[in-house]
Amino acid sequence: MYSSKMKTILLAAVAIFLAGSLMVFPKESFEASIRGMTMWWDVVFPSLLPFFIVSELLIGFGVVSFIGALLEPLMRPLFRVPGVGGFVWAMGLASGNPAGAKLTARLRQEGKVTQIEAERLVSFTNSSNPLFIFGAIAVGFFHNPALGIVLALAHYLGNICVGLLFRFHGRDQEEDSNAKSSSLSIKEALRLLHQERLKDGRPIGKLLGDAVQSSVKTLLMIGGFIILFSVLNQLLLLIGITSILAALISIILTFFKLPSDLSIPFISGLFEITLGAKKTSESTDTMLLHQIIVTSFFLAFSGFSIQAQVASILADTDIRFKPFFLARIIHGFFAACFALVLWEPLYVNQQSTQEWGVIPVFLIDQSERIHPIWQLVVEYGSIFTLITLIIYILLKANRAIKHI
């Protein structure tokens, strides 16, 4: 009872403190809010919405069950999750945070995964998408396409290691029947696909409308968190709390032989990875290797902004947030270590070979090919967002009229 009362007082004090800070710094808060809103409007919404809608359609048509039956022999032995986890993993990698959590929560609500399996699945299916890593960070912030290979490989290899490690999560709480792996059967997979489509039963038009509304609703929530943490990050900087935290973080960075100049960019990255990556790239007094190691860490950590989004999504299920948070810390250390290991073979050595005019085939123009796509998202993303929100409003209005 005492701890519950203290928690209430603490939460109330934080809320009052934030409200007071907004009144003291209205102009700075407004500008930070605009920055967060612009990021969501121009980039996050148009880049995530198509994947969310397609995911909903694939689930409704039974394709997820079909994929799950095919991937069961792979996902079960490696990560101790059902085959449908392969679909979540692929969509999470392609669309980025927090798609993995959204799809995992959806599968848990439909009973396709157990609570323990869902906690394992969500631990390694949330990651930044290649478009963001190559287009925004490597080219947009560091102006160096070659860094995209190092950052991406470190990020995804770290995620795989987290998945392999978390296969042991909740092993004592799991029933033996859940540990069995089924054999590959195309016929069985097709049967499941047909059954799932009939079980859903919604016409294509209704399914598409539901997919749009569900996806937009989730993205509106994500936008709110992005704006909130953009403002919070700015307020902490203005109040001076960031400087205090930076002094503590600098001790930790020094322990790992990293420059203390990266402490403030590191804190920014812990709150919001886009802002953190931007500030890290602007730190001119530090080695590029140190910048990449720090960026790899908070890119894997995902930032409190994305973690809050995941916590909100998981709150509708019995999936616990604590394993996900622990996984993000472990992923951060894995990604930072991989960045250090991959730095020389994939960046230093490749820069040397380019000076001699010899470039490996797998590295030729990889980042340059993704950068134009990122530019299109930034340029036309706002128009796409506006059109989609209009469609969303019309769908909601149509449903409201039908219920009158």
From TrEMBL:
Record keywords: Membrane, Transmembrane, Transmembrane helix
Keyword Transmembrane helix: yes
Domain Nucleoside transporter/FeoB GTPase Gate, residue spans: 43-140
Organism: Alkalihalophilus pseudofirmus (strain ATCC BAA-2126 / JCM 17055 / OF4) (Bacillus pseudofirmus)
NCBIfam families for this protein: spore_ylbJ (TIGR02871)
Keyword RNA-binding: no
InterPro entries: Gate_dom, Spore_IM_YlbJ
Transmembrane regions listed in the UniProt entry: 48-71, 131-157, 225-256, 288-313, 325-343, 373-395
The name this protein goes by in its record: Sporulation integral membrane protein YlbJ
Pfam families linked to this entry: Gate
Domain of life per record: Bacteria
